[in-house]
């Protein structure tokens, strides 16, 4: 069976994607901060006969990206990668500061680019690259 890594798989959109992909893939439910949500998604997949593991990693770092893919590959060759991680941690412009901007930048952009780079190195069907 093909395997898929869904980064941010414990969130609303990511959870839905995990559950749909689980019909045809073994799923690595990726999370950074909320293990509980990722575990709930994995349990729902397993309850209907699917295969799912929970993968904790900070994909805004090179090591985190490698860790997530290493864990996903325990399910088999990774054929699908979906990045659903996101952050927007303030409600008003007056709450902006450098720390908030940096944290959201790392989650929203750096993690996406590092996931893309690791995907390019590891995903089996390289015809799309």
**Taking strands numbered 1, 2, ... along the chain, how are they ordered across the largest sheet?**
3-2-1-4
Fraction in beta strands: 15-25%
Helix share, percent? 40-55%
Question: What is the CATH class?
Answer: Alpha Beta
Question: Major β-sheet, in short?
Answer: 4 strands, parallel
- What is the H/E string? EHEHEHEH
Kindly give the count of domains: 1
Fourth-tier CATH superfamily name:
NAD(P)-binding Rossmann-like Domain
- Level-2 CATH architecture: 3-Layer(aba) Sandwich
Mean pLDDT: 91
Description:
- The mean pLDDT is 91.
- The chain has a 4-stranded parallel sheet, with helices on both faces.
- Helix 3 (62-73) crosses helix 4.
- It has a single domain (2-85, 114-128), classed as Rossmann fold, CATH 3.40.50.720.
- Helix content is 47%, strand content 19%.
- It is of the alpha/beta class.
- It has helices at 12-21, 35-47, 62-73, 98-122, and strands spanning 2-7, 25-31, 52-56, 78-83.
Nutshell version of this structure?
This protein is α/β, with parallel strands linked by helices. It contains four helices and four strands.
Q: Any chance you could write out the topology, listing elements then pairs?
A:
Layout lengths: L1 E6 L4 H10 L3 E7 L3 H13 L4 E5 L5 H12 L4 E6 L14 H25 L7
Parallel strand pairs: 1-2, 1-4, 2-3
Helix pairs in contact: 3-4
